[in-house]
Amino acid sequence: MRLSSSKKVMASLLLGGSLLVVPACSLDVEMSTTGRLQILVEDTAGNPVPNIKADLLLDDKTTVSRSTTTGSDGRAEFDSDGVAIQVYFIRLNLTPDWNIAPDDANDKAVIPSPGSLVLVPFKIAKVVAP
Question: What does the DSSP 8-state code read for residue 67?
Fold first, then answer.
């Protein structure tokens, strides 16, 4: 398909105009090297549980990176400024009054999402004396 000279001129103008737009666009992309990790601890009825301690463990499941305690809303964040993007495990440190709910688990693996919040839920059950 051959373009007439007027179509060639129009195509050149359109192409030239679009190239002028590119330098005006910002191509700077800031990559976040941290993400936020928050836990939500609820009982088996779905009620928030305050005063539950939790550790953010490195991938060796031994080294504690940070610790936190849930507030009245059952939530706690390990660091509002964020944590490094890597594999962690979150372990609840339960008192004798609480157990992990039968359909849940402790030592949950998590990787923070760059520049955003990851919420890790836990269900716990009240220990009933025999």
Answer: E
- Sign, CA dihedral 13-14-18-19, equals negative
**70-89: per-residue pLDDT in tens?**
999 999 999 988 999 999 99
Q: Is the pLDDT of residue 126 over 70?
A: yes
Q: How far is CA 122 from each of CA 23, 33, 51, 96, rounded to the nearest angstrom?
A: 49, 26, 14, 17
- CATH fold group of domain 34-126: Immunoglobulin-like (2.60.40)
How far apart are the C-alpha atoms of 68 and 102, rounded to whole Å? 24
Confidence band (pLDDT; 50, 70, 90) for 130?
Answer: confident
Give CA–CA dist 86/20, Å, rounded.
41
In the chain, where the domains are located: 34-126
CB 87 within 8 A of CB 67: no
The residue behind tokens 């490195």 is 58
Q: What is the pTM of this model?
A: 0.74
Distance of CA 129 to the CA centre of its chain: 37
